[in-house]
Amino acid sequence: MSILIETDLPHPGFFRGKVRDSYALGDKLLMIATDRISAFDVVLPCGIPDKGLFLNKLSAFWFERTASVAPNHLVELIADSRQLDAHLPPGTGYSHPAYLAARSMLVKKAERIPVECVVRGYLSGSAWAEYRQRGTACGLPLPQGLKESQLLPQSIFTPTTKAESGHDLPLSPEEMKQLVGEALAQELEEKSLAIYRHAHEYAQSRGIIIADTKMEFGLVDGQVILIDELLTPDSSRFWDASQFAAGRPQPSFDKQPVRDWLIQSGWNQEPPAPMLPPEVIEATAERYREAYLRLTGKGL
Ligand SMILES: Nc1ncnc2c1ncn2[C@@H]1O[C@H](COP(=O)(O)OP(=O)(O)O)[C@@H](O)[C@H]1O
Ligand SMILES: [Mg+2]
């Protein structure tokens, strides 16, 4: 087990997201998934051991599996230090450590489309809260009498803004069209639903329900491609299929226990976030590991 909170490689093309550190290399990006964890859009002061490693490998797994459904930005999953050294020269006589290489992926640099493409197959989280109050999910009408966590009659596309800081806001179909244009809005919806359906079916065969997920897309040479991460516990709700029952919240493989602990701690959700207790860190690390092993069916 190892832990990596931040990379500090001297490089002019460096930029930092909440979880990933990226290095711009011409028309490519070298993205390193760190062990940082965010909740309620705030990065926590502690890392989750090996989280970046599982996120990186799980995203690559899905990019390969879904390439026939929609093109994506993956160029290569970095296999070892030598391969990382080739892209990001570390200086003579020095080699990047294995824990960095294991968290690295080379991708095509894209012009980001500023939308979080969310697909929901089940009624949970903020969609359930809205449905209880108003009978809709992200403004979309739903049949009456649905229970919490229930499978929706059909999966729904509920995009949000991608806020530079703070919280993402829901986009109505009309706002979505205004933001990206009608043709692109439709393409993003179709691609997002197709990826979700494909992944949902596969995951179910591995005993995991993907309740919902978030994707990002970008443009490369005028073509729409999937970017960022794909179908990880950070971007999705994963449920254990064997324990699933509608009518209540589901135990999850994602970071729900972190959110639960933060809520009961009384934290006001403004930075700085409190430190997680060791048992919550350990339980979360175990969840990321388990989700990866179950979905891919392989060790590292
Ligand atoms: N292929 C790509 N081209 C350009 N930007 C990308 C690409 N893939 C991901 N990104 C961006 O890189 C960042 C990844 O880091 P992350 O920690 O996920 O950031 P965030 O805090 O925005 O979620 C995101 O801002 C994402 O939009
Ligand atoms: Mg992100």
Please specify the SSE layout and strand pairing.
Layout (H helix, E strand, L loop, with lengths): L13 E3 L3 E6 L2 E6 L2 E4 L2 E6 L3 H16 L7 E4 L3 H7 L10 H4 L2 E5 L2 E2 L2 E8 L2 H10 L1 E2 L2 E2 L9 E7 L2 E2 L11 H8 L1 H24 L2 E13 L2 E5 L8 E5 L15 H9 L13 H19 L4
Antiparallel strand pairs: 1-2, 2-3, 3-7, 4-5, 6-7, 8-14, 9-12, 9-13, 9-14, 10-11, 14-15, 14-16
This protein binds adenosine-5'-diphosphate and magnesium ion.
Adenosine-5'-diphosphate binds next to strand 2, strand 7 and strand 14.
User: Gap between N and C termini, in Å?
Assistant: 12 Å
Helix content: 25-40%
Shape: globular
Number of domains as seen in the coordinates: 2
CATH architecture of the largest domain: 2-Layer Sandwich
Binned strand content: 25-35%
**Low-confidence runs:** none
SS-derived structural category: alpha+beta
Mean pLDDT: 95
Radius of gyration: 19 Å
CATH class of the largest domain: Alpha Beta
Structure summarized in a few sentences:
The chain has 300 residues and is of the alpha+beta class.
Would you kindly provide a written description of the structure presented here, covering whatever features stand out?
The chain has 300 residues and is of the alpha+beta class. The protein has two domains: 14-109, 2-Layer Sandwich (Phosphorylase Kinase, domain 1), CATH 3.30.200; 112-255, 2-Layer Sandwich (D-amino Acid Aminotransferase, Chain A, domain 1), CATH 3.30.470. It is 32% helix and 27% strand. The protein contains eight helices and 16 strands. It has helices at residues 51-66, 81-87, 98-101, 125-134, 173-180, 182-205, 256-264, 278-296; strands spanning 14-16, 20-25, 28-33, 36-39, 42-47, 74-77, 104-108, 111-112, 115-122, 136-137, 140-141, 151-157, 160-161, 208-220, 223-227, 236-240. Strands 8, 9, 12, 13, 14, 15 and 16 form a seven-stranded antiparallel sheet that branches. It has a five-stranded antiparallel sheet with strand order 1-2-3-7-6. A hairpin with a 2-residue loop joins β4 and β5 (42-47). α5 packs across α6 (182-205). The longest helix is centred in the middle third of the chain and has 24 residues, at 182-205. 41% of the residues are buried. The chain binds adenosine-5'-diphosphate and magnesium ion. Adenosine-5'-diphosphate binds at residues 17-20, 22, 29, 73, 107-110, 112, 216, 218, 227-228. Residues 17-20, 22, 29, 73, 107-110, 112, 216, 218, 227-228 line the site of adenosine-5'-diphosphate.
